[in-house]
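Re: beginner question about structure tokens

> Can someone show what the tokenized structure looks like for a real chain? I only ever see the sequence side.

Sure, here's an example I had lying around. Input first:
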Amino acid sequence: MKRMLRMATLLLVALGATACATTTMVQVWRDPNYKPTPVKSVLVIAIIPQTAYQHTYEQAVAQAFRTQGFQASPSSDVFPPGQLDREKVVAYVKAQQVDLVVAMHLSRQTDVQYVSPTMQYAPPPLYYGGWYGYYGYGYRTVYSPGYYAENITVVAETNVYSAHAEPEPLVWSGSSSTFNFSRASDTASSVASALVTDLAKAGILVK
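And the corresponding structure tokens:
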């Protein structure tokens, strides 16, 4: 009984570990000629048709900037739902003295893999006690049939533009992949953290 409880505990720990979303930057580009200037304000735009998901991602990215000491505004807090009006965004950027505009586009990739069946094998006893003894031994053998596993990855493509010129020049671009997620909020937080960390590493975020 104690062994079963211990195995169950280990299983719960493993499940808890895989529930954490993990984001990895897979492609990054930085304008080699860009000379960064102090950043105070950032506008975050998530190109997602679903308003709820757009708000979730924009809030997460904005919060990641705020945690590092930068002002950041989600576009969904400023503009009405639907396609943004360029002139209104430009007017807002100038009025609020926005330094960087972060535009993010998300896509979903699905990979289906076949997991082969497994069987926990133990050497049979020397004496089975008739056919039913052998039947009982075989019936208790742990068997897991094969199945198809669907692995879903969220890919975030993010462009960062400087708002100090018009049209706004692209200064940084990156693509990230997020695995092992269970909720949109977990994915958004993981993507935001990886993004802000890489922007700081690239010298785009300076105070």
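Each token stands for a local structural state, so reading them left to right follows the chain. The longest strand covers residues 100-115.
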